[in-house]
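2024-03-11 09:14:02 INFO receiving multi-entity request
2024-03-11 09:14:02 INFO entity count = two
2024-03-11 09:14:03 INFO echoing inputs for audit
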Amino acid sequence: MKPAAFEYVRAESAEHAVAELARWDGDATVLAGGQSLLPLLNMRLAVPGALVDIGRIPGFGRVAVGDGGTIEIGAAATQAAVEDDVEVAARVPLLRAALGHVAHREIRNAGTVCGSLAHADPSAELPAVAVTLDAEFVVRGADGTRTVPADAFFTSFFTTCLEEDELLEQVRIRPPSGRWFGAFEEIAVRRGDFAVVGLAAMFEMTDDGLGQVRLTACGAGPVPQRLRAAEVVLTGSDGGPEALREAADAARGELDPPNDLHGSADYRRAQVAVLLGRALDASGGDRTRTEV
Amino acid sequence: MDGPVVTTVNGVERACHVDDRTLLCDLLRDELRLTGTKIGCGHGACGSCTVHVDGVPVRSCLTLAAQVDGREVETVESLGTDGQASHRLQEAFHRNHALQCGFCTPGFLMTLSPLVASGRTLTEDEAREAVSGNLCRCTGYEAIVDALLEATGSVEVAGD
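2024-03-11 09:21:47 INFO inference complete, emitting structure
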């Protein structure tokens, strides 16, 4: 359970980091918190020639509130730091709710939010949350930075739009205006395990019932699965049992989940419906959510 | 492929020279002969390798030695040597029979000692959540939860 030999490079700046990635021509991997990468190295499922450590780059650990109340999470900001951040808790409570399901606190003390997103495990919670929140991904390359929307960032299993000489420098989450309720639900074998299937939901609460709805499933495909048909059913509905039944049917119909030893495709479809019900129940109980 | 790592371990500055791929758990055990830290699963799931880096519990099997250059590391060997809180935790483990083979125990102690030091009391649910990242094959966990609740002053201790 030891890594194969590699060269360790500590990047001093974002520019230095991408220059090293380019120099190693696809044979270098970015190291932030290492909580997804080190298991792969230890089991030799990954054998890069070099690791470029971005964990000490000044400013990369920052969690801040930017223009218009946008939460800005730097590449080296730990999941624990985001979990404990009072601005995140106030503005985007869904993120904190989901983080409670990510591994265990000891892992979150080292693992990073951006690292989990860049790793793009289909069963991971944070990518689904990022899609539901329409997060923006700030990608650093040789020519500077570019911004990628969440629905273009995740492209396949463990694959994102990042090129070999690019790294994810920051993720930005703009809290939606109005009154929204966020719920994260998952089915896992044990608390802290990867989701067999999970759901990141945002419901706009109006005086006449639900306004807009955003639903994204994890563990239901190679990338986070936005449940657009179910969203259409619930938008403008009362969120009651009939609406849930119809939305669950729509969700089951639009999903093509994997069959594997953790669950069949039908099981995953059925569980997404259950999670949708739980999320709606949770939203019904509290109509005093974040107002931005 | 190798380089210097200067790190403070249990209050003592240690200057080491290791392969780039050296894990922190191996630096501690093999180079520094601090074998209290155990390696169970090697991929972060069992918790027996848990140490503190800059005061915070992390998995030493998922940390490169290079990553603690310039940082402070504390292992289970540091407990009970400097104050009441950790000593209280170890006493509570002893009184509650919260260990049998003891392999998982250093990891549990390092995971839980910050909670004891915080002075916070815990509900039983919070205690169960706190221990949920560490695996034990011997005890069945109840005694560990009891020890944590006792050490944090969350329950009355029966008089001797």
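2024-03-11 09:21:48 INFO post-check: The interface with chain A takes residues 1, 3, 19-21, 23, 26, 39, 42-44, 47, 50, 53, 56-59, 61-64, 66-67, 111, 129-130, 132-133 of chain B (CB under 8 Å).
2024-03-11 09:21:48 INFO post-check: Residues 29 and 35 of chain B are 5 Å apart (CA to CA).
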